[in-house]
Amino acid sequence: MQVSWQSLYDEIFACEKCELCRRIHNKVPGQGNVHAKLMFIGEGPGADEDMQGLAFVGAAGQLLTKMIAAMKLEREDVYICNIVKCRPPQNRTPLPEEAAACLPFLRQQVALVRPRVIVLLGATAARTLLREDFRITREHGKWVEKKGVWFMPTYHPAALLRDESKKREAWNDLKLVMEKLKDLEAQENGGFEGV
Ligand code: URA
Prior knowledge:
Uracil-DNA Glycosylase, subunit E
């Protein structure tokens, strides 16, 4: 059932389905353009996100902003959220059961935004949404289509901050995303079919 943004956010703020909510300052539901064609999904809030209640506002978020700008877009053009809405202690990877408990919220966000393309930032997003044994190093940059939505797994910006040599590969992945958005837009506008 499709819920409204208000009831979805109310549900997220009231959620106690796993232990993560016990030690947080703020829930971090996600933010951005609710009509975006492009959505970014990370892993979970870090310390800055937990303090501000906003996704990707710390160091990784600043790099994500630059990545979005390199795509000739602004943060206001896209929707940004995470697999889990509460910060895991010491920024550990969310447990599969924590990700599973939070997944209905993400599904509702996707249903409401209806993006054409989703960039999965890092292994946790790819493992939760594509395949539990997904290997980001080996399998990033390859499209997966599900029900008309195109998923592009790539490196998490935090991984790019740790290892700058991965930036070129990540940029190649994002260029594929730019091409796909252009192709989808051309299709929507009739393209050259039947000319
Ligand atoms: N890392 C994430 O995966 N998400 C954020 O919001 C911030 C850092």
